[in-house]
Amino acid sequence: MSGTGTDARPESHPDAGDEGETFTGTGLERIEDRRILTGEAQYIHDITPEDCLHMALLRTTHAHARIESIDTSAAENHPDCELVLTSEDLQAEYHPMPCGLKGFEEWSLAVDTVRFVGEPVAAVVATDRYVAEDIIDEIDVAYETLDPVVDPLDALEDETIIHDDIGTNVPDGEEFVFGAVDEAFSEADTVIEREYSWGRISGVPLETAGVVAEYDPDADSFHIDCNIQLHTLVDDTVYETLGYPPERVVLDVPADVGGSFGTKIAIHRYCSLAAMASQQLDGRPVKFVEDRVENLQGGDMHSTQREYSVRLACDDDGTIRGLDVQFVDDFGAWPRYPVNQTLKPLSVLTDSYDIQDVRYRYDLVMTNKTSQTAYRGFGVPPHLYAIEMIVDEAARELGIDPVSFRQQNLIEPDAMPYEIPSHNIYDSGDYPAALNHLRDHVEATERVDGGLLDPETIEAQRADGRYRGVSYTLHIEPGVSGSDWTDRQRSDREALATRDRDAVNELPEHLRAEITEDGTVRAFLAADSSGQGHQTLVTQLLADELEILPSDIEVEYLDSGAAPTVYGSAASRMAVMLSGATQGLGERMQSNLCQLAAEEWDLDLDTVSYRDGAVERIDTNERLALSDLVAIDVANRSEGERLTRARYDYDHPATTREAFDTALTAKYPVYPTAAFAVNAPIVEVDTKTGEVDILKFYTLRDCGTQLNPVIVEGQAHGGIAQGIGAALMEEFGYDESGQPQAVTFFDYLLPSIKNVPNIEMQHSETPSPFTATGAKGTGEGGMIDAPASIASSINQALEPLDVVADRIPMTPNRLRRRIREAEATNDQ
Amino acid sequence: MSIETSESDSERPVREISLTVNGETVSAEVEPRLKLSDFLRNYRDLRSVRVGCEHGVCGACTVSMDDAVVKSCLVYAVQADGSDLLTVEGLADDGELGPVQQAFHEEHALQCGFCTSGFVMATRSLLKETDHPTDEAIQAGLADNICRCTGYQNIYDAVHRAAEYTQEDED
């Protein structure tokens, strides 16, 4: 390991004149901040064109019901009503929304049947949102209620089917067997088998979904401002719904988006409805902004809910022989776009452990709940949680110290790059050293007189019913998604066995730039952003590449029409892909500029060189600055041939590596970077109340090369805060009739400053050998690893009581119940 | 189906209000049910006032009303009649960031920024009550605001730094 440190603080622009000064790797202050801090930022909520109308949605209060009739006459007669839409209107002119699995036909407004509380049934457009909501109340819908299916395990029985045309509540499932699993389990000394639950949680960004759609009747095209995530990748969900070609449906995402964390990739329903409404109103702009109750109950923003059954085969000496993971994933009413979160865990199948024989099986079930979307980690956090829980219990059952047990089974550094059984490859890292380093640090700091783990304090607290503990766990954060695996569930799986490498599509990341007349540089991103600081990142990297000042660079965003289809901001991808793209773009621009200067001076290309923001003649040191070069370019070349404009596509790091061929051709998830983190949250459980207090959260994180340590650290802090909420507080509960129990922030509890403890963060840097800059990506960390580590620390604290954190979130009442049950058992 | 209407058909009750916003006196006719947050955003184009939950939990719409912090989504515009309001737009001095804004910038206490104006307003209020708040005082002062991106460690640091800057300004 190298370069551990604990303090990352933003730096003002370093002095330009300093020889060899670079901006990459420094905590350059963010470009985005000033406009946000002064109220000048423009989020989607702030966009309201002149003449804009406002849409509101009528949402059903039933979990499962047949729509007998809809009477919109009173609504239409309201003096402020401009438009009422029901599914009948949609079916006449438009198309269903694309679904994650074949065979499903989901319309933007419910057709015939409603399948979750909050599902939109009608849309109203009026002069403002207040009156649009008044008019909603005038619509009369008659329902015949049906039995709901709420529990995913009940849904497996198929007694009540929620999609008659599909004929089952389990439309997808698959079993993967790697190695000799049955042999491993039959030959092992011990098999540990347990069940775990992961509750329905999600990203819940502070900004709700929003859209402003405008139809242009003359051009027969749409311009849709919205805060959708991955606007160039998932634009098909909007243009296919409208029934238009992509070039006539432009999605434009503002530079400022108030958080997404994956969730906003599935807001196409709103985009489509607002666009249809605008078209029906001859091009009047139509705005829709989701309110918080809508967001929490029917905003299509919930994420992973799983029931796990896990087995671990071990020998008495502590060797893990095999792993068997099965789970049922409750997808809610519709299999939405990000259906592949059931498969992404294959990319970190064995987490940081060396296990060769593994079975992975899932059933994807439909229930009468809000549909799922992606959330930070995309299905990986529950997987890592289930693995760490069973590893804890194996250590306990074998009577081996949990750290020693983990150490014995970690992937060794000399095995890197390491191919896991499911064919993804971990790029680099020394896991045993990282685990030892943090363990030694925490033990030396805290298990001493006056420390949080002072044995005397632990004993005294325990006498008072408060149990303290810490666990040391190491987790992999798979980074940089490609794209070609994400339609595996819609592919002919037999055909995948013989698929050719040439048939594999991978999406590069696009970046373009132009030099303006005054010599400053404008760069354009093809991906959207939601707080990750992409403008800052590209600015600092491009400043280094072109040897100019960050203040001479402006970074803007392209809409889905101007940008090529890229994958975009997801899956801890942008630091790697944007840094690769910026490096490539910088080199291309330098070479263009040298050519331009050589032509101007009538010299050979090798007699000029680029240095300090200008091209220089090697013989005379005469220089042409960027502004000079633009003038020459404009004078001599046509628009399409300018050399002061360049574009570059950085290929996905797996594209040219044969080692990934097996995974790529068979559509197994490929994540070519393995960032990792060691966590050690010190927890105290009050056995009288079941409350968990995280006294301090130690973490050592490695995301390869840190391009901007301040941004890296901010991402990690935010991720851990979300992980704490997931582990202990947040959940979208439902009652037996399918009524959502968390529809306000009084019920869906987000961590506040009182819930997030002091975090001591260390960093190491193990550059990735697979990426241009050595970066590994860091966008999902914290949320990926904190829940598992917190649950593991709770297990350690409550070991004397024989209580296991077998459910996420481990809310006080749940934990109190476990403790009470354990006390009853122990008393017998 | 589109419906032919004329906008003047509607008869919605209105009341006249007059108040000071960022030092400027403004009058308007508003519906009694109009939220102050919507008034500031839609009638005054004050974009720093962010609407995150509309039920008083997230704190993104926090503004100062007669020197007390309020969640503007829980106040009707008519209730603000005659009051003196301050939003983030009123904090920057000739384009220079105010001390709290500067501290949030320097400590990287924001990412997506949607919660930031609320935190800035709450911090400003806290520093008016307490020169150098302890971590416990910061917890109490900012417990009504939610950040979803950055966590809270950098926010503690930003408040401490803002306290220094505010003191320097006054010295």
From TrEMBL, chain B:
Keywords per UniProt: 2Fe-2S, Iron, Iron-sulfur, Metal-binding, Oxidoreductase
Domain 2Fe-2S ferredoxin-type: 15-91
SUPFAM superfamilies, per the entry: 2Fe-2S ferredoxin-like, CO dehydrogenase ISP C-domain like
Transmembrane segments: none
Organism superkingdom: Archaea
Keyword Iron-sulfur among UniProt keywords: yes
GO molecular function, a single term: oxidoreductase activity
Protein name: (2Fe-2S)-binding protein
